[in-house]
Amino acid sequence: MVSNLPPFGSFSTLCYAVPSYPVCNLFFHQLLGPRNSPQTIFPGQDTSNAVNLANLVSAAPVGINPECGIPRMHTGSSLGNIANIIACGLSIIATAMLILATGRRKAAVGRVELRTFLFTYLLTCIFQLLTTGSFLEQGSMALAIITSIHLGLVVMLFWQLLWNALVATQWVEDGTMSSLVPFTLFSICFFVAALYICLDTAFGFTLIWQPNNPTDLANLENITLFVFLDIWPPAAAFIFFVVMACIVMCILREVKPVLMYLLTAVLFVLSQLAYFLLNRIICERTSAKIDGSFVATILETLAVYALWGAWRSITEDSWEEPWYD
Length: 325
What we know:
With 325 residues, this protein is mostly helical. The chain is 63% helix and 0% strand. Keywords: Membrane, Transmembrane, Transmembrane helix.
């Protein structure tokens, strides 16, 4: 029996069926490269003429021959991905408030590590606004570089989430060199590794992540990138929730933090479902005026707030002993 499922590591279905999927920006630049043909991106369109190709690229949405996509801003009456632009803006403000609130909790366990995690999340919101907001022209060098930075930050973000769970076990003392040195070094390693793979995918420095046959580009395969972006984040989140649930239930024996972490997990799962399932439906129902990415962004930020609330409920605000002041 022949399976209709795409091969492991394939982004073709995601770039076709999921609007505003940022990794597709890398493949768009790859497909416009000198080794490939733009007919893969614009099937049935006349791309032999430079003017026609330029017009198609200028208005192209995020995705590769997408079922539904929001045209680039200022193309006709398009406002870009306006709903997600607003959602990202509000998330940036909300996360900045959490960073300030975290800094005021002087005695809280994992304060420095959590604040760094929140700052990284704030950066991902900024770059998401740029990579999925339909501001920049598809296939441009600027968009490929910004997308690579965005995805590198996402990969690093989930390492930082995982380290916060390790700090909560107090296996390493939070805020000390024994915690901050490996935390920082591995953050840099995750970011640099993901950044390099993304850039090599888009620009083909080594051809390692380029297709073997330039005329057969239907699968858009990149197993390493798929593991980094689609396997690593949910795996890291799952380990985080398991560790924190064990700490709260087996050691602290408190109910409220368990409910807060459960809420965090539910919101995170709902955000992914909204992004991968609801995204295209909203795009089609609104005639490509908006898509469901704004719903996912709001749910993700609410998940971060719930996570912060759970952390706040299991940590001290300040030292009770006056001499620490």
